[in-house]
Amino acid sequence: MVDSIGFNDTSWLDIGGYFHSENMHVIERLHRDGPTLTWQATVEDPDVLLKPWVMNPRVQKLNPDPRAVLPETLPCSERDLSHLVTKEHH
Fold first, then answer.
1. Coil, strand, or helix at residue 14?
2. Residues 55-85, buried b or exposed e (16+ Cβ, 10 A)?
3. What's 85's DSSP letter?
4. Which of 2, 24, 1, 28 is nearest to 13 (CA)?
5. Cα separation of 32 and 38, whole Å?
6. For the chain, first and last CA: distance in Å?
7. pLDDT at 2 over 90
């Protein structure tokens, strides 16, 4: 479980841009059952939400190849320019 607090209110939730307050509390739960990994998040924000928002679980099958690797990408590369909010914050 990952329990996160201490957010500022300059970010947003989801691709729809849903706002939140500095009182947002996010609880992420990860569960592995053999090659299956399940991730689910719950967002609590008493200043914005009437009740906690629970994300639909996301399920991934893990690659059974022990030599498998994920290619890494560099952060903040040119492909992120369309997502910039300002030059100071993205």
1. coil
2. eeeeeeeeeeeeeeeeeeeeeeeeeeeeeee
3. S
4. 24
5. 6
6. 27
7. yes
Distances (CA, A) of 72 to 47, 67, 81: 37, 15, 19
Q: Is the pTM above the cut of 0.90?
A: no
* Amino acid (1-letter code) at residue 57: P
* CB-based contacts of 3, cutoff 8 Å, min separation 6: 25, 26, 27, 28
The DSSP code for 71 is P
- Written as six digits, the tokens of 20 are 């939140």
- pLDDT tens by residue, 15-66: 778 899 999 999 999 999 999 999 999 999 999 999 999 999 999 998 889 8
Write down the pLDDT at residue 17: 82
The pair of structure tokens assigned to 18 is 């849903």
